[in-house]
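Lecture 7, part 2: worked example. A protein chain together with glutamic acid.
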Amino acid sequence: MSAMPPGNPASNPFVSSPTYLMACQQLRNVVRDAGLDQGVADRLMLPKRSQIVSVPVRMEDGHTEVFVGYRVQHSLTSGPSKGGLRYAKNVDLGEVAALAMWMSWKCGIMNLPYGGAKGGIAVDPAELRGGEKERLTRRFTDEIQNIIGPRIDVMAPDMGTDEQTMAWIYDTYSMKVGYACPEIVTGKPVELGGCVGRKEATGRGVVYCISEALAELKISPEHTTAVVQGFGNVGSVTCEELVKLKAKVIAIGDRYGSIRNDRGIDIAKLLDYQSKNERKTVVGFPEAEAIPDAELLATPCTVLIPAAMERVITAENAGKLRCRVLAEGANGPTDPEADAIIAHSDIFVIPDILCNAGGVTVSYFEWVQDLAQFMWDETRVNAELKKLMLDAFRRVRAEAKARKVTNRTAALSIGVRKVANEKSKRGLYP
Ligand code: GLU
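Predicted complex, written out as structure tokens:
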């Protein structure tokens, strides 16, 4: 079945992106399996609304540089749209649209009252100097002001953005509307109405899922080895949480290279090393050996955790994976061709829209607290997160077993069905 969305491809601005086509193909597969209404499926294939803005920034040397920024809102059916803002060199409209679509399914699985959205600016944040990142963020916020709001679209951190970025968005929006409006973004600093444990939430959620998978496979955490691609917010917290369970992290890679130590990498020492070197990389860590990047994902281990980029597991390397569990910390790390290969192996897949849903779940807690002006403590945040993650994990496994489908198909079916059902029940306006 074609992965193409409805309409004339020549007039569809998203289809030049392989990531968007991948998201469409996943949706088509689920529509076919779950017997969804074609009209609703067609509506879900195209994002509700997308805005492309130019973002002029005064650079430190005085010249003006113009960046391209995107905000794509895939669905507003279930509530405001929700999703991160990504700063990365090669971000394009189609990629952001795919990521927005995945946010819809993710919120659907977790039963959060949100549709999916994503934003991006095509910029390498490592190249920004002095106040450039702040000016870029504030001007972008201003340019998309007309389509965001606490009941319309709520941003959060993603690749290349963090708590400070959210603080600037919060401030810029609040200056515009004339009052402090913390509920405009999540993933803010705790002092500004952020939620305790939000920063760690995605990694914690990943490890709650891994623990469930290991229990099902009757593997003890002490006998578990892990390989992690990515040592940003998601990858590093995942490593820390795995170490707390007494699992061994034996290899880690980032954008600069990969390292391995079969005796187990000391994560606290690695974090210290990473924070002190200029490129903020794991490369060169004295207590591990360098390995080629192509070897990282093929390293024999119990759990492989891609926690960096989309489409890193493809038809080329899917057959080379030597893990028992594939826990997708990143969004879209495995393409549909790789999926078909993995489906014939004994690898237990924890699909992205379930595995990394801890982030948006605690974002939801943050938004609820900001709206109510009543803050929770970390014990409550973590207990509620664990409850929702385990409930979602068990529903996905029950669906996979009952229908004899892969965990990915089960997760996508649950997420897509929730959104499709709400669309059908609300009806088509006018
Ligand atoms: N960027 C994160 C994600 O991909 C979190 C989004 C959010 O918290 O709204 O799930």
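Residues 82-84, 156, 158, 186-187, 331, 356, 359-360, 363 surround glutamic acid (CB under 6 Å). Residues 200-355 form a domain with the Rossmann fold fold (CATH 3.40.50.720). Keep this in mind for problem set question 3.
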